[in-house]
Amino acid sequence: xxxxxxxxxxxCLEYLKEVIERFSVTQNVxxxxxxxxxxxxxxxxxxxxxxxxxxILDIQMGKMNGMELAKRIRKTDPNVYIVFLTGVADYVYDxxxxxxxxxxxxxxxxxxxxxILSDVISRLESNENQYLIIKINRExxxxxxxxxxxxxxxxxxxxxxxxxxxxxVKMSINNIENEIHFTxxxxxxxxxxxxxxxxxxxxxxxxxxxxxxxxNVSRGNYNKLNEAFINYYRGI
Length: 236
Fold this sequence. Notes:
Blueprint (H helix, E strand, L loop, with lengths): L1 E5 L3 H17 L5 E5 L2 H8 L7 E5 L7 H9 L6 E6 L5 H6 L4 E4 L4 H17 L4 E6 L2 E6 L3 E7 L2 E6 L3 E4 L3 H7 L5 E5 L2 E4 L3 E4 L3 E4 L4 E3 L5 H13 L2
Parallel strand pairs: 1-2, 1-3, 3-4, 4-5
Antiparallel strand pairs: 6-7, 8-9, 8-12, 9-10, 11-12, 13-14, 14-15
Helix pairs in contact: 1-5
C-alpha cells in the first residue's frame, strides 16, 4: 500500500509516520510512506495524478489548504482514498464534496488510524479495478488495468493501448509483465501482452481486440490464450 501524508505540523507528521510504520510491522503489511509539509510541495513532487492508495491530509495548512488540494487531485483521480485531519470541525461537509473516507479531529488516536488502515486494505483487496503506475514526462500517471486493451514492445519502449489513450513508456515488456501480475493479462507473443477482457476473436495466428486491432499470437502461447479466453467467457 502507498500512503502520502501532508501536514505542516512536523510533530503530527512524524507521529502519523511512526504509527503507520508500526502498523506495517505488526500486521505484516508492506507500506510505502511519503511525507510532505505543505500542499505545494506535494503537487510539485507528484502532479495532480497521485501514485498513492491513501492520502492523509491536514486541512488547515498555509497557502493551499488540504481541502483545496483534495479538490484538485479529485479532478484527475476519483479513486484514491482521502482522510482529512484537522483541529476544528468546520470543514466536515466540504469533506463529502471530495468523497472523503474519514474526517478526523486532532489529536488522532493510534487505534483510529489502525482502523482506517485496516479499512483501506480491505477495500483495496476487494477492488478489482487495480492500477498500473507509469512515469511520463517526469509525472506519475495511474492507468486502470481494466482500461488496458493490449501492450506492445517497440525497441526500448512499450506502447500501452487503452480505451481512451495510447502511452509510450520507456521500459521493457518483460518488466511491465512483472508489474501487471493479474489474471486477465496474457503474454501471447514476445512483443504482445493482451487483456483477455478485450479479446473478441482468436485463432492460432492472431487475436482481434475490442478496438479492432489485431495482434500476433505465437505458436507456443496459443493454448494458454485459448484456455484463458474460454474460461473468461464461461465465467470460470
